[in-house]
Amino acid sequence: MDLFTQRAEKNEGPLASRMRPRNLDEFFGQEHIIGEGCLLRRAITVDQLSSVIFYGPPGTGKTSLAHIIAKQTKRNYLSLNAVLSGVQGIRDAIENAEKNQKLYGKKTILFVDEVHRWNKSQQDALLPWVENGTISLIGATTENPFFEVNKALLSRSRVFELKSLSEENLKDAAHACLKDKERGYGRWKVVFEKGALEHLIKTANGDLRSLFNALELAIETTPAIWAPYEEEPLPPLESEIFISKKTAEQSIQKKAILYDKDGDYHYDIISAFIKSLRGSDPDAALYWLARMVRAGEDPHFIFRRMLILASEDVGMADPYALLVVQAARQAFDQIGFPEGQYQLAHAALYLATCPKSNSIEAYFEALAEVEKEDQEVPNHLKDASRDGERLGHGKGYLYPHHFDGHWVKQDYLPAKLLGKTFYTPGTEGYEAKLDIKKNKK
Question: What is the pLDDT of residue 236?
């Protein structure tokens, strides 16, 4: 029995640890990298994994993948946590790897959790051993590795991005836990009030660990006395544990969204909010915003929808709208509730009262043209720095700044599209001042 499953099989440790997937078939989510036929799945299955970095939000399965690899590999497997392990820990790991290489001809897989926490010198200490193949690194990080991991180490690793789990993934994981008689709660009859489990899933926001922690807290604190189910006598199957919506709210420390039983209000109210912004009605916008905030809607969801509207429905009529909403979102992240409601209202009022234009839809007309056929770049627009002398690229290009008004009549579209108009400025706000038609004369 390996160290990753000992505690789970004894039903010790937190639920999230007990329910760690033992193989890829038990893994939830990340089908884009471990689905049938995917490179990572093939590499794990045949034990041919090279150095990799798993990057993604908390609770998406980075450490679980490392545990699966530990069970699958015939190589020496070591694990370090970058927060707890310093230079000595790295030296010990390298010494262990060298020993196994010399004595047994076995290479080593080294899993480093939160690898972004290591400084440059610590990361560099691994580089020679990764280069010569003594160590295959598996790094896990919640931070963008292209900013937080040394380029030399990054260039020798393949990055796999893990994404937040879908609500369907979380639902499947929750049901698997509730059915599992050895590691989960399959020996009890756990009953949820309508909307309680859905609240836990929605509020977990793609984080499986968060969902398991909430389930554990809700289930194990509901009975008057909680006795681990490996003790005798086992609880009868008819023993019911009822989880109310209030218990669910307390377990994940977030109020349930007060939308209707079918969840229609979640979609209907955000629709009413967006249409009020688009229709330049600040009073209605504030009302629907207040409804969402009062119901416990995720403010980041509201900001995301406002960011979309700032480009889709305001666009070039007020180019500053996007900056205002983005600044409000950043300020909200610094302030939080309850004062952060000012930033939500600020962004909503700005969008509701500024001029509107959907001329940005011109981009999709251009995209449709591209999907029909890729046109040749006109010769005078090609890069002259590489093939200008030999092939004449760039010949005939007129530099606009050499002419009055910093403009000169010149064709910029491919030959087959000359005269084609995608963008027509609106008549409101900033766009009303634009003069782009001189190119079409």
Answer: 53
> Maximum Cα–Cα distance for the chain, whole Å?
93
Q: Name the CATH topology of 371-440.
A: post-AAA+ oligomerization domain-like (1.10.3710)
Quickly list DSSP for 253-315: TSPPP---TTSHHHHHHHHHHHHHHHTT-HHHHHHHHHHHHHHT--HHHHHHHHHHHIIIIIG
Structure confidence at residue 437 (pLDDT): 52
Domain map (residue ranges) of the chain: 30-161, 167-252, 264-353, 371-440
pLDDT band at residue 3 under the 50/70/90 scheme: very low
User: With left for phi above 0 and alpha for psi between -120 and 50, is residue 408 left, alpha or beta?
Assistant: beta
**Residue 234: pLDDT band with limits 50, 70, 90:** low
Q: What is the pTM of this model?
A: 0.57
User: Residue 81 pairs with which residues in a beta bridge?
Assistant: 113
Contacts of 236 (CB under 8 A, 6+ apart): none
Whether the bond into 414 is cis, omega within 30 of 0:
no
264-353 CATH, one of 3.40.50.1370, 1.20.272.10, 3.40.228.10, 3.40.1190.20: 1.20.272.10
Q: Which of 100, 52, 90, 49 is nearest to 71 (CA)?
A: 49
Interval 255-265: pLDDT, tens? 454 444 345 56
> pLDDT above 90 covers what percent of the chain?
46
CA pair distance 434, 441, nearest whole angstrom: 15
- CATH second-level architecture of 167-252? Orthogonal Bundle (1.10)
Phi, psi dihedrals of residue 55, rounded to the nearest 5°: -125, 125
Distance CA 322, CA 350 (A): 10
Cα 324 to chain center, whole Å? 24
Place of tokens 């160590």: 135
pLDDT band (50, 70, 90) for residue 239: low
Asked if residues 170 and 202 have their Cβ atoms less than 8 Å apart, the reply is: no
User: H or E stretch including 113?
Assistant: strand 108-113
